[in-house]
Amino acid sequence: MKKKTILSKRPSWDEYFLEVARLVAKRSTCLRRSVGAVLVKDKRILATGYNGAPAGLKHCADVGCMRQKLKIPSGERHELCRALHAEQNALIQASLYGISAKGSTLYATCQPCVICVKMLINAGIKEIVIAGAYPDKMAADFLKEAGIKVKKIK
């Protein structure tokens, strides 16, 4: 019988960075879905982001959710939301500090929406590793067309 060592319990890099994304998601101020994103290059974290209102503005937890009030289904009418998405915030944080996302991998707690996917394509993201799905077929189609590898890990 093989003895378990500390190394046999060690997470893979993908598992590690997805776990960081899950931790980042805990900062979310969205009332409907907590999402975390981590930009990684050469096994180094470049930036993180979670979904929430722009800096200095009131959070949805304070003013309520416009999308809930309007009964907008998940995956539709992204522009009718007070919050920025986690992926957007990660890209913005990188740009604020002069960090290029080109050639990096995005780790996210769910598949990005089509708006985020368009930004990620233009930022030069090479791969996306996700923990969960999101109901946005157009986003998945764009990722495939752009040749961005998507890997789902539980």
Helix content: 25-40%
Rg computed from alpha carbons, rounded to a whole number of angstroms: 16 Å
Pick out the low-confidence regions. Answer: none
Note the run of SSEs as H and E: HEEHHHEHEHE
List the helices and strands and how they pair.
Layout: H1 13-25, E1 36-41, E2 44-50, H2 60-63, H3 66-69, H4 86-96, E3 105-108, H5 114-123, E4 127-130, H6 137-146, E5 149-152
Parallel strand pairs: 3-4, 4-5
Antiparallel strand pairs: 1-2, 1-3
Describe this structure in words.
The protein has a five-stranded mixed sheet. The longest helix has 13 residues, at 13-25. The two termini are 28 Å apart. The chain is an alpha/beta fold and 154 residues long. Strand 1 and strand 2 form a beta hairpin. It has six helices and five strands; from the N terminus they run αββαααβαβαβ. It has helices at residues 13-25, 60-63, 66-69, 86-96, 114-123, 137-146; strands spanning 36-41, 44-50, 105-108, 127-130, 149-152. Helix content is 34%, strand content 16%.
